[in-house]
Amino acid sequence: MSVLPFDERDGFIWIDGEIKPWREAKIHVLSHGMHYASSVFEGERMYDGKIFESRKHSERFHKSAEILGMKIPISVDELEEIKYDICKKNDLTSAYIRPVAWRGGEQMGVSAKLTKTHVAVAAWAWGTYFDAEKRNTGISLKTSQWRKPAANTAPTQSKAAGLYMIATMSKHAVEDDGFDDALMLDYRGYVAEASAANFFAVKDGVLITPTPDCFLNGLTRQAVIALAKDMGIPFEERHIKPEELNSFQEIFLTGTAAEVTAVGQIDDHKYSVGPITKKLREAYETLVRS
């Protein structure tokens, strides 16, 4: 499959106070963020000219940086304006938006107190994250050998770049085995999430999702839970053991990129794209465009 490299695209990116041509938005190879993963980011979607949960994303961006000891040099209000400006500059009304902050090259080594926090915001047209043809059958997951770390060993409530290393490793490994994505367990062995999307299951009409005590409580996750409660769907948030997977009738994932994506298989377990998944998917698609 031929994909146009992101650094060879045309358009504009906001970086450190300037809107620059896409191909000129560059950082130095000795930036601290590249060597020590001192970087945070957001993933957002614009639907019909409106960024879904935009301010919540901007606030989380600031919170993630705070957790890593970084100071974002622009306010939430300024970031809100920048996101819409860069979409307009790129003539986008439906888009994926990526704010990112990183420590620069003013200091090299584990200590980074002398570094400056840099910020960029990019936006581009992007369709479905997973294969759209699997909408009616669901994607396939395989359990990863890698596990989500404990909250006292990593900044698990931040959207920190370094946390996604094991996600990439896990996704690559299962793709090599013919699966679409990885199912991640946590450090205790409970079901956590997919490589970059939150996990939901349905059993006997009850919607069940893992407690987000060592992984990110996604904004799409929160929106879907609110939709389920409004629709009167019984709901449980609790730890889920892997041996429960064969008792669920429906599985789906949620995330800004994934939106609401049905799962048809986990390891050797098969699932149908059932009525609750379909109802919540339809409700979410309506919500983001409302």
Number of separate helices: 6
CATH topology of the largest domain: D-amino Acid Aminotransferase, Chain A, domain 2
What is the rounded Rg?
Answer: 19 Å
Give the % helix: 10-25%
Largest sheet: 9 strands, mixed
β-strand amount:
25-35%
Q: Architecture of the largest domain, CATH level 2?
A: Alpha-Beta Barrel
The mean pLDDT is 96
Series of H and E elements? EEHEEEHHEEEHEEEEHEEEEH
Unreliable runs: none
CATH class of the largest domain: Alpha Beta
| Count of discrete domains | 2
Q: What is the terminal separation in angstroms?
A: 34 Å
Name the overall outline.
Answer: globular
Number of strands: 16
Oligomer: single chain
Q: Could you name the key traits of this structure?
A:
single chain, 290 residues, alpha+beta, D-amino Acid Aminotransferase, Chain A, domain 1, D-amino Acid Aminotransferase, Chain A, domain 2, 9-stranded mixed sheet, 7-stranded antiparallel sheet, globular
